[in-house]
Amino acid sequence: MQYIRLIRSNRDFARLWAAQLVSLLGDWFSTIVISALIVSYTEGTGYQGIAVSGFLIARMIPPLLMRPLAGVLADRFDRKGLLIISDLLRALVVLGLLFTTQSPDYLPLIYVFVVLQFLVSSIFEPARNVIMPSILYRHQLVIGNTLSSITWSAMLAVGAIAGGLVAQAFGTQIALVIDALTFVLSALLVATVVVPEVPRSELGQPPRKAQDKSQRTFADGLRYLWRNPQTAAALFVKSGQSITSSDTLLIIYGTQVFVVGEQGVASMALLWAAFGVGAVVGPLLTNRFSDDSVPVLRRLISVGFALIVLGWLLWGLAPSLELLALAVVVRAMGGSVNWTYSSVIIQQIVPDDYLGRVFSLDFAGFEFVQSISILAFGLLIDAAGGDTIAHIVYLSALVAVLPLLMWVGVVRGIEKRESAEAVNGEF
After folding, report:
1. What is the pTM of this model?
2. For 281, what's the count of Cα atoms within 13 Å in the CB-facing half-sphere?
3. Residue 37 to residues 61, 275, 298: CA-CA distances in angstroms?
4. 99 vs 96, 108, 209, 262, CA distance in Å?
5. pLDDT tens-digit series, residues 168-225
6. I want to staple 318 with a disulfide (CB 3.0 to 4.6 A). Which of 119, 120, 324, 407 is the partner?
7. At what angle do helices 172-190 and 141-170 cross, to 10 degrees?
8. Residue of 121, 115, 100 whose CA lies nearest to 34
9. What is the DSSP letter of 204?
10. Residue 424 CB neighbour total at 10 angstroms
11. In a 3-state reduction of DSSP, which class is residue 216?
């Protein structure tokens, strides 16, 4: 009910949320379709694993390179305008993907259009995250970010299934046209959002002097992190959990191991849907143990890392598509908890002047580690072959223990420092 109350009481957030809803629906339409198209184009070539990894990396590397500029843009210019321009440009790029559906000869062109799409997307995401504290009151941040996170997850579930069904029934081109139209609708919804000059999350907080826009450089953002190690620690979460990316293995399992439907579209859609369900359930469960304070959110992130390890172990043991889907749910629960709470921590402790650059650095770290992980998985899959693919899953479970242990150590260090500062403050 608190999510429904937020949507009813805050019209600006409701419109931004609706824009996210429709654009994500289209995103997952095209992700399922393009993944299946690449698998079909590379069947029997011997480089299918690296081809799939290349598609995922094409979604990661462009934003990574664009992040320094994107963060500065989000802190210097009208954030709402950046969202609208980004949506309209993405609609045009997705329509360009229609040319790649004619023949395997157009495989390289798929990567070109994907790179262009995610170059533009790298501007959209930081700007959207930065607008959230402007239109949400401080007590609404956790609920708003949870709703945003589970919306991403729910649309992953709904969009994956819908994308698979539409592709089966009407073909790849119709799915891509739907994706383009969702970006247009998202732009129209964002245009109706009113962004107040003073962020609502800062109302009631001590007034402070805003930083001059000409001084909002990327280097200044790095200096801010150096001066604020607690913020830097929050930036570890998304990148730390990405050391073991599930995307490549999920596509390979859906199209090569447990295959349902033509080219594995149905099984792949089911696994993506399971990921979406897990990502919805994760923060909804852990919110019951949260008081919205930063210390409690840090501890709940430890639970998220532990769920990731458990998910990988269950994945390796799964003998069927149904049990694999359950393992994917658990893996996604941990990732979603970490993503949601690390974003809330940043929004609570970082001044509005720096939010764009900090979120850009947060996403850049995630994309850098995720890209390396995806490439490594692609190479391991091609080298190992289908008979030993389960070994890669168990290796992932082992590697996932490392960020869990590191985060537990970081939290203990921060809590000791905060306790010492509190004691010194009393004297």
Report:
1. 0.69
2. 16
3. 21, 21, 40
4. 6, 11, 51, 22
5. 677 777 878 888 888 899 899 989 888 777 666 665 555 555 545 555 677 777 788 8
6. 324
7. 150
8. 100
9. T
10. 8
11. coil
